[in-house]
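Field: COMPLEX_INPUT
Field: COMPONENT_COUNT = three
Field: RESIDUE_TOTAL = 924
Field: MODE = joint
Values follow.
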Amino acid sequence: MQFFIEVLVAGLLSGVLYSLVALGFVLIYKASGVFNFAQGAMVFFAALFFVGFTEVLPRWTGLPVGSSAVFWLAMPLAFFCMVLLAMATERFVLRSLVNQPPITLFMATIGLTYLVEGIAQGVWGANVRGLDLGIEDMPIQWVMDSVGIGVSQFDVFAAGLAAVLVTVLALAFQYTKTGRALRAVADDHQAALSIGIPLQTIWVIVWSVAGFVALVAGLIWGARNGVQFALTFTALKALPVLILGGFTSIPGAILGGLIIGSSEKLAEVYLGEYVGGGIDSWFPYVLALFVLLVRPHGLFGEKHIDRV
Amino acid sequence: MFYREAGQFKTSYAADQQVFPIRQDRIAIVLLLAVAFFVVPVFASEYWMKGIIIPFLIFALAALGLNILTGYAGQLSLGSAAFMAVGAYAAFNFMLRIDGMPLIVAFALGGLSAALVGIAFGLPSLRIKGFYLAVATLAAQFFVVWLLTKVGWFSDNSSSGVITTQAMQIFGYKFETAASKYLLVLSIVVSMAMLAKNMVRGSIGRAWMAVRDMDVAAEVIGIRIMHTKLIAFAVSSFYCGVAGALYAFAYIGTVEPEGFNLDLSFKILFMIIIGGVGSIMGSFLGAAFIVLLPILLDVLVQEFLTSIFPASINSNLQLIVFGGLIIFFLIVEPHGLARLWQIAKEKLRLWPFPH
Amino acid sequence: MSGRKIGDVILELQNISLRFGGVKALTDISFDVREHEVRAIIGPNGAGKSSMLNVINGVYHPQEGRINFRGEERRKMEPHMAATQGIARTFQNIALFKGMTVLDNVMTGRNTKMKANFLEQAIRIGRAGREEMEHRKKVEEVIDFLEIQHIRKTPVGRLPYGLQKRVELARALAAEPSMLLLDEPMAGMNVEEKQDMCRFILDVNDQFGTTIVLIEHDMAVVMDISDRVVVLDYGKKIGDGTPDEVRNNPEVISAYLGVSH
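Field: COMPLEX_OUTPUT
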């Protein structure tokens, strides 16, 4: 029983990571109607730029390697690069594909994935790098002592960070002027334009915020698994998350992530031993497939009634 | 002045519905086939045939398959490499376990196996559309690769699923030289391309395009959606399966499931985006482009750029160029090289006049 | 008025009710359609006319009521069944296949009549090849009839609105339907185009005896060419009879013009 809870909790916490990536998707989809396949690549890009800056800053500024000063300088620098990426994407990709069907935009983001990866690795090289956030991946002592379950303090930290981020974003969407503008744009581009909302600025803002989320996700994932190319495709797992949680719901992304994370871990541990393991490579997708069969628009998705 | 249609009147519907109604086109295609069958095997170098033309033909076949499903029938699929894998492994197993299995039959059976798997993963398309379907095809992609790796039976119990395909022979004639392999692959690909062209201009092709363009209207005029979609999945997977079998038997020789990964599926998708969705010729143009581009980049980097950039730029350059090209084509000419070719031909019809 | 002799009832709708969530599109509608007649459905915007057509050919399924077509009674129609039983239609917002040429679009109208399967088509010898030619011939007759020969190889997306509507009619006619459902076939057309369209519709009814059910806003057209008219308002039937009867019905007048207080 204990073991089951440990696996479940570990799964839930890894699900939080998926949720973070899915969050970036949802933000972009909500505001620009684009299904951004490149979100995973953006996570990789952000993480790589961050790590790269931590390596390079000591040389530029004479600050000691690994110091918190370097860490806190690298963050805004990496975010600044994400903003640049957002601006470039809006200027060269989104603007040029404005009236195209969603499938074209989707395929453009597939191209974007390769482009972003190539640039990131081209600038920083393709070596796997570790990322140290200063929090150990060790069980929390008092939980271990009281209920005998091993819960990694790193995982808890990550979950807490994600929770804060989500709450801040949800509140910002609901209560700020920019958030309202974003929701207006998501609803109807034309209408938003006609009341004077600057579409292009909004898109840059949204992609930048998604970039920030990608940065946070990248830091946590990178600290967990090292910053490497494979990060891009692991982030693909966010797709089943979106199917469960719907493409436009922030709480949905969280819930979906938790379900996918926990079910994936549980399946791997309990079912995996019968079939030789490695189930987690396809389980989330097959799960999503079955959900789609029952509800073709995802668990929380919106149903379209075609007017004929 | 060379490409005029003047004087070429069609006096029957049959004549109007030929694949190449313009006489100059017919001459061109006959010449092309003649060169392909008679000139290339004699004059092309082994490196070219083995390393460039054979993979080009094989990928063109796979691209043809994906084009039928995604370009004509409008069902987005990110799992074409998985169907190639099924074709390869099925053909291998049929050759392995049935004595005296003829090669071509093994290829066909490989294709059929892929078609069956394609239908199975195509069933969800009856309920699921668009991006959601793409995610379902991802399930196929990852599941198939995992299954082929884990279940030893598929790879005759070799570790990590690696298989080495048997040597190819038909009625005792061994296909050992590059030229012989090339001719075998060429014959298969050309015949399958002709079959595809016929399907695409027949009523099934129109049904596919109708389902793609507006499935509600298609249903209303009596097209059976389920039927049409499943046939698209079956035919497309068959083509990918045969391509996979050829890939394993006539090109690489030793394959593993990981070699048919998501990256390959994307490559094939890029071929049809760049080449032209919904176009048979586009599949060939796109395959040629994607096969030749890395070689071109290699040469470029080696000749000109090593002095400026570090070595790691090369593989990343490929990623950047591919990604950039996809975006470029989607913006500038979403119908790909095939449309550019059509535009060129139209200009040629008027040449030397401007309009 | 059509010149054809009007036959027996071939379509009967009994107490049809249709809801979308909380919105009632149609409430307790009953009327019939006789063979060879031209039946118009009119009413203010949002009255449920298109929904009515959609129920007839199975795009929408009513929650209540029954449909009786050619003696067979059903709770609901399925689109494929409607097509094979000889019902064809056009749509308010043109539902052509934008990626194909005019010829190909009209050829899709013959799909239910083609027997060769896809394998035969791949080889295209024998039955498949012959069928293509036979059906091409039939399609060319329709194209002649609607005078769109000059654009047969043009992709439909490039055609002006009026011609697109005509192509949609061609596609419907290619199926040789016994009943034709037309949803605002003359919307957005100028006077000449309307006259042409009227002529075509009457010719179809005259020459082929096709029963026509049409939704139309232009009252002059409706009064001129229909045999009988059904009037809908807010999803309910408020009038049913000949054009003259309906024209003088006070409920119909107030629905269109509003009641003065």
